[in-house]
Amino acid sequence: MYPLRKWIEARETAGEPWIIVGDFNRRLDAQPGAIPDEIWIALTGYSADKTGHDRDPRSDIQLFRQPYENMSTCWREFRQPNPSGIANPDGYNILPIEFFIYGTQAATMIVPESEKQFPWPNPTPADKVRLSDHCPGSLTIKMD
After folding, report:
1. Which helix (H) or strand (E) holds 4?
2. C-alpha–C-alpha distance, residues 15 and 35, integer Å
3. Of 44, 86, 68, whose CA–CA distance to 139 is shortest?
4. Which of 68, 63, 31 is nearest to 48 (CA)?
5. Which among 51, 64, 126, 135 has most CB atoms closer than 10 A?
6. Are 60 and 44 in contact (CB under 8 A)?
7. 42-88, pLDDT tens digit by residue?
8. Model confidence over 4-20: pLDDT tens digits?
């Protein structure tokens, strides 16, 4: 993540709009207590302790992500309600792991409330093996 952080920092310093779209395989919104996801820390440079003090000496980069605190609608029919070892299993298990991540310039180009997920229609148990475990998604960007 640190080479990606350097790339992001260069884009932000240059004032360029950018967006990264992908499967991060991380629940970036799952923040138990005051400790955010380690990938989010690596990208933003912000690592708050329980009092809110930033423990990371690097300069912070303000990043945005979509979906943000929205549940995943993908495979909801087959969601495991109680995976072991998770404090809030249902809330954790339904958070997305694929994101649109972008910086301050791109944030001005995003159409509010435009992020959408496209769950597989009427899935069957066989589809869990046959289809992707991720939902397609979209985000509308206005190009002036």
Report:
1. helix 2-14
2. 29
3. 68
4. 31
5. 135
6. yes
7. 888 877 777 877 777 788 899 999 888 777 777 665 555 444 444 44
8. 999 999 999 999 999 99
